[in-house]
């Protein structure tokens, strides 16, 4: 598939590398066309991947990954351009983390709204799927390093076909417990989990963990 | 131990029955001294347990369980009386669920505060420990019904000795993955997990589940 990445940070690079290794055609999009991290990342892939602006990535991709910081996501999508988001599967990996009062962060949107809903409202023709926002980057692309991949990742979105496409990508990463939480409003659940994730990270002393759903 | 229960609902009754079955001396406290559910519950125990007001329960117990609805908890503690809460371990099982806009609920306090913190601030001499608020009542007292008890429950509180007392009670229920998240502010994490719990409940169609922490 043609994949457009929005965001060149740790999460964007890790996902981009995994997707490229699985044979997808990846376009790394940044705020500026000559982004240093995007250039180095493309060099690492042997020059087979492409790079450019958010608009370039959004235009190129059939599936887009929003890996920008939550506080910058709406602005990044504006730069990507509504015309390039129309009909696209937009995997929203971001979290509405507010670090303005230090650690641990709070959320700048929660309870009766979520960042995923804000993105969906701003770009109603994009097919937003909240996913992968509840684990650290290394675990996202290599779930098998923990419990043979038998642990939880979540999907939220209004478009069932888009969720099935994302489910297929997650399964190709090795995810075995992929839970469809419901429509885009259910992203409130996975986003509001972040404060617990941060506290567990502190208690465990290591971000290489996840939660597995166990049942009677 | 002498246990004072605050709240006669499903959670209060289930915990009270488990604690009595383990040999603890349980006092079931309600808003009114002649509460019907408390009377029936005491009858079921063969009359060995006691019952009365919130103040009676708080006076009696060394360890108190707040099992009232989140929205009613501060009022219940006011009825219990500051003089009866002083020095007591107060296990806060409640959640700040706001059902005023229907299902799914949102939280009436979150992000930069939590219900556990509100209770601790209102009664600074109580030893508040947030616990057991992340699972349904049946799982609380019978964790072994799922994954042999190897799944997660959380502690938050400022008093280490109080947390160790609660850890011992949870271990006696069969809990094997008891995670100390930190001071009382870490209750924001376990309380903000509730919206995800509610969505997982919907997706799984059954409240008999929990999360297990898995690590690499």
Present the secondary structure layout.
2 copies of one chain form a homodimer.
Chain A: E1 2-6, H1 10-21, E2 25-30, H2 36-44, E3 50-53, H3 54-60, E4 63-66, H4 73-80, H5 82-85, E5 89-92, E6 97-98, E7 106-107, H6 115-122, E8 127-131, H7 137-141, E9 152-157, H8 160-173, E10 177-182, H9 187-192, H10 194-204, E11 209-215
Parallel strand pairs in A: 1-2, 1-4, 2-3, 4-5, 5-8, 9-10
Antiparallel strand pairs in A: 6-7, 8-9
Question: Could you characterize the architecture of this molecule?
Answer:
The structure is a homodimer of 216-residue chains. With 216 residues, chain A is of the alpha/beta class. In chain A, 39% of the residues lie in helices and 24% in strands. Chain A contains ten helices and eleven strands. The first copy, chain A, has helices spanning 10-21, 36-44, 54-60, 73-80, 82-85, 115-122, 137-141, 160-173, 187-192, 194-204; strands at 2-6, 25-30, 50-53, 63-66, 89-92, 97-98, 106-107, 127-131, 152-157, 177-182, 209-215. The first copy, chain A, has an eight-stranded mixed sheet with strand order 3-2-1-4-5-8-9-10, sandwiched between helices. The first copy, chain A, has a two-stranded antiparallel sheet with strand order 6-7. In chain A, helix 8 (160-173) links the parallel strand 9 and strand 10. The longest helix of chain A is centred in the C-terminal third of the chain and has 14 residues, at 160-173. The radius of gyration of chain A is 16 Å and the shape is globular.
């Amino acid at each position: 598939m043609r994949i457009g990445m929005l965001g060149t940070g740790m999460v964007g690079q890790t996902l981009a590398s995994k997707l490229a290794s699985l044979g997808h055609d990846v376009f790394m999009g940044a705020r500026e066309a000559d982004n240093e991290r995007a250039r180095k990342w493309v060099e690492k892939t042997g020059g087979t991947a492409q790079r450019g602006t958010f608009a370039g990535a959004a235009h190129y991709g059939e599936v887009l990954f929003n890996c920008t910081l939550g506080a910058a996501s709406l602005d990044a999508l504006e730069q990507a351009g509504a015309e390039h988001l129309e009909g696209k599967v937009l995997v929203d990996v971001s979290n509405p983390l507010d670090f303005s009062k230090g650690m641990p962060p709070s959320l700048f949107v929660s309870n009766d709204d979520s960042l995923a809903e804000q993105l969906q409202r701003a770009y109603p023709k994009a097919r937003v799927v909240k996913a992968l926002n509840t684990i650290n980057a290394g675990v996202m692309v290599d779930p098998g390093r923990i419990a043979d991949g038998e642990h939880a990742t979540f999907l939220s979105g209004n478009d069932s076909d888009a969720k099935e496409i994302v489910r297929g990508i997650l399964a190709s990463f090795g995810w075995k417990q992929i839970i469809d939480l419901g429509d885009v409003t259910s992203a409130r659940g996975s986003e509001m989990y972040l404060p617990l994730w941060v506290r567990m990270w502190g208690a465990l002393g290591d971000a290489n963990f996840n939660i597995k759903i166990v049942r009677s």
